C-alpha cells in the first residue's frame, strides 16, 4: 500500500507523488511533499520558492509580478515585504505591502530576503 497522505482538500486516498509535489487525481489539488507537520505540533512548515524555511516576522521579496484580484494594481518583481505572518490556507503569508495594503501571498512566489 502507498505511504502517501490523503488529499488535504478532498480526502482522496489515490494521491501520487510527482517529484517534490503530491497530486490528487480526483480534485487536481497539488501540495508540497516537504510541507509536513512537525512531530507533536500542528505547526506547518512553510518554505519559500528556494526551499528556505519561513518564520513569522521575516522579510521576503516577491519573485513574480502578481496581479491584485479586483483591482488594476500589480505587485512588481523585487517588492520587499517586511514582517510577514504565516497562516493556514492556500495563501499562507499574511502581510502589508506599501502602496497596496493588506494582502495574502503564496509562499511559492516569494524568497527570503
Structure, briefly:
By secondary structure, the chain is mostly beta strands. It is built from no helices and eleven strands.
Instruction: Supply Rg.
Output: 16 Å
Strand content: 25-35%
Largest sheet: 3 strands, antiparallel
Q: Which term fits the overall shape?
A: elongated
Poorly predicted runs: 37-41
* The CATH homology group name of the largest domain: SH3 Domains
Family: Belongs to the YjdM family.
Protein name: Protein PhnA
Domain Protein YjdM C-terminal: 46-113
InterPro entries: YjdM, YjdM_C, YjdM_N
Describe the 3D structure.
The protein contains no helices and 11 strands. The chain is mainly beta and 113 residues long. Residues 37-41 have low confidence and may be disordered. It is elongated and about 45 Å long. The relative contact order is 0.17. The strands form 4 sheets. The protein has a 3-stranded antiparallel sheet with strand order 1-2-3, with no helix packed on it. The protein is 0% helix and 29% strand. It starts with 15 loop residues before the first strand and ends with a strand.
List keywords for this structure.
113 residues; mainly beta; N-terminal domain of TfIIb; SH3 type barrels; 2 domains; 3-stranded antiparallel sheet; elongated; YjdM; Protein PhnA; YjdM_C
Write the layout of secondary structure elements.
Elements: E1 16-18, E2 21-23, E3 30-32, E4 60-62, E5 66-67, E6 74-75, E7 80-81, E8 85-86, E9 93-97, E10 101-105, E11 110-112
Antiparallel strand pairs: 1-2, 2-3, 4-7, 4-11, 5-6, 8-9, 9-10
Amino acid at each position: 500500500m502507498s505511504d502517501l497522505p490523503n488529499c488535504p482538500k478532498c480526502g482522496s486516498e489515490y494521491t501520487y507523488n510527482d517529484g517534490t509535489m503530491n497530486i490528487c487525481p480526483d480534485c487536481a489539488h497539488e501540495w508540497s511533499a516537504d510541507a509536513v507537520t512537525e512531530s507533536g505540533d500542528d505547526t506547518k512548515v512553510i518554505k519559500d520558492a528556494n526551499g528556505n524555511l519561513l518564520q513569522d516576522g521575516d522579510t521576503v521579496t516577491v519573485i513574480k509580478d502578481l496581479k491584485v484580484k479586483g483591482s488594476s494594481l500589480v505587485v512588481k518583481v523585487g517588492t520587499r515585504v517586511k514582517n510577514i505572518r504565516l497562516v493556514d490556507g492556500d495563501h499562507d503569508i499574511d502581510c502589508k505591502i506599501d502602496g497596496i495594503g493588506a494582502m495574502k501571498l503564496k509562499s511559492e512566489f516569494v524568497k527570503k530576503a
